[in-house]
Amino acid sequence: MNNFFNYSKDDLTKLFTEAGKNKFLATQIYEWVYQKKVYDIDCFSNVKKENREYLKNNFSFDFIKIEKVEEDTDVKKFLFRLLDGQKIEAVLMYHDYGKSICISSQVGCNMGCRFCESGRLKKVRDLQTFEMVEQIILVSSYIQDRIDSVVIMGIGEPFDNYDNIINFLKVINDPKSLAIGARHITISTCGIVPKIREFADFPLQVNLAISLHAPSDEIRKSIMPIANAYSLKEIMDAVDYYYDKTSRRVTIEYIMLKGINDSEKQANMLADLLHGKNLYVNLIPYNETNNLNFKASDKKQIDIFYDILKRRGIDVTVRRKFGTKISAACGQLRSKEM
Ligand code: SF4
Known about the structure:
Elements: E1 2-3, H1 9-18, H2 25-35, H3 49-58, E2 59-60, E3 65-72, E4 75-81, E5 87-95, E6 98-103, E7 106-107, H4 117-120, E8 125-126, H5 129-143, E9 149-152, H6 162-173, E10 185-189, H7 193-199, E11 207-211, H8 217-223, H9 232-246, E12 250-256, H10 264-274, E13 279-285, H11 299-311, E14 315-318, H12 332-337
Parallel strand pairs: 1-2, 6-9, 9-10, 10-11, 11-12, 12-13, 13-14
Antiparallel strand pairs: 3-4, 4-5, 5-6, 7-8
Bound molecules: iron/sulfur cluster.
């Protein structure tokens, strides 16, 4: 049986119409489920009995489960158990501008970034749309509040699960579902070039972030195996293409790794690479984990790196560090549990 949360309203409408149902049925059910949070089909009181039977025969409302929550002042980290027993995680962060959730898109990840706990544990499978939607619903219900923005930057490479991600974006953006505005959604890729180009055709104004993490192919190859498939030039060409088609400014994510990519020379190399492009750089302080040998750059070194980029005319910020007392690095909680 298909999980209801796999369906965008348009897909449901199409399905219902093909089954000879009223085309407004999809809107009615979306209201029950997403607005009234009622998941028992028998309680859909304004839906005809025969349609309720049809729904019962075709859709399930099975939920993944929150297995563990770790909390710090400005962050909560959730470990989920999926219906097949696999585990994933999501992180809720409290910003001045609202609450944002970072969700997982796969069980494990095949990209193998050397500094990443998720990459240490290989991909088991892609997440279906409902498993991503339910991360948001469950966290929102746990905190009894609305979540303002969504970042797809947890376990997994979203562009390696492209079709489910596109469907997920349609579902959560619908004004009758979770109504997360496209500009409040960010999808982050380690640089799968053909998908960056394909995503340029996606109509919603969703933000795109590229995990670059290095100013040269040589350094990138030493920390990110994906760099063997796509060069920085190919990535920057795809980013230019994306910007030309969408006029949407791409964010460059750059994780600060001590002695690897954080020198003054490397800041200048990064400025050379990004010069003249309408991009925004986010410097990310690294969350050290016991399982990996990478060290976080000193705050002073991050400041020097930041100043060089700023002086060279690059739009740059340093991401606030969340949850130092809990397993805040991506994949750390799952890896600890396993
Ligand atoms: S950083 Fe992202 S793409 Fe790289 S291994 Fe980790 S989850 Fe995968």
